[in-house]
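User: Please write out a complete single-protein record containing the residue sequence and its fold in C-alpha cell form, without commentary.

AI:
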Amino acid sequence: MKCSVCKETAFIKLERHNSAFCRQHYHEHVLRQVQRTIRRYRMFSADSRILLGVSGGKDSMGAWKILSDLGAAVVAVHINNGFGEYSRDSEEKVRRFAARQEVPVYVYTFEELMGCDFDTACRLCRKPACSLCGTIKRYYLNRLALEHGCDTVATGHNLDDECAVLLSNVLAWHIGYMARQAPVLEGEPGMARRVKPLVMLTDREMEQFVQMHGIAVAEGSCPHSRGATSLVYKEVLDSLQQRSAGVKAQFYFGFLKQMKDVLPDPEHKEGDEQPVNRCPVCGYKTIKPDKCFICSLKEKIAAEAEH
C-alpha cells in the first residue's frame, strides 16, 4: 500500500477518502481536515483565544496537538471528577502531555468546583451520572473560559460522536436537540461560543493520529459509561460504515446541509416556550424562574454540609 501523495509506504488507508497516507502526509491530512472545518463553519479567527476541555482521551488530546500545530492560542483545562483510578490516570496523561509540549494546563477537581464529591452531587440532584457530568462540565468550561479571557470553548467531539447523537435524536424525534446539534453554537454576553473542530474525523482516524505521535491517552473507559446507549448507536453506524465507507459523513453533513433551514431556533429547547432567564447568582442562562441548576445544587450541598 502506497501513500497517495508521495508513493512511499503508507501508514493508514482511508476508504471513505479513497486514499492512503504515510505518517507525514497523514499528519498534514488531519490538520487540513480540521482547518477546513474551522474555516467552513467560521469557528474562530486567528486572534481568538480558545479554551479546550481536555479529558485525557484520544479525541481531546488529539485536538490539543492539532490546534497547537495550527497555531491556535489554546488554554487547556482538565476537570478531575474523582472516579478512582480512571480519573487519576486521565489527569496523569494530561499533565504528561503538557510537560512534553512545554505548555500549561489548568487542572480542577469536581470537589473544588462544587464543594462535594461526585456521588454526593448525584444523590442530591437525582440526575444520572452522565447527565450530571455533562451539565457540570458545560457550565464550568464556560465559566473558566471567561475567567481565562477566552472567547471560544472547544471540545473533542468527532464524527462518530456526532453521528451517534444524531441517530439517537432522530429515532426519538427530539427536534429541539437536533436543532442544537451543530459544529458551532454562537456565544453571547456571559457565554462563550462552543465549537467542535474534529467533526470531520472519525474515532479510528483520531486513534491512529494519537498513536502515530506517541501521545499517551487514558486507558479504559469512564466507569459510569457502562451500558451507555451511545455505544450501541456507534456499533450500528460502524456496521453501516463497513458496507458503505462514507455513510457517517453523508448522514451528519447531509443533516447539516438539508435541515439547517427547517429546524427551529437552536436557542429554544423542544417543547419549551418559557423565556430564557439569567441566574441571579452567577448570570448563567436558565429556563428556571430563579437560580440555575448549578447554583441550586450548590445551595443543597452547602445546606447538607451544615448538618
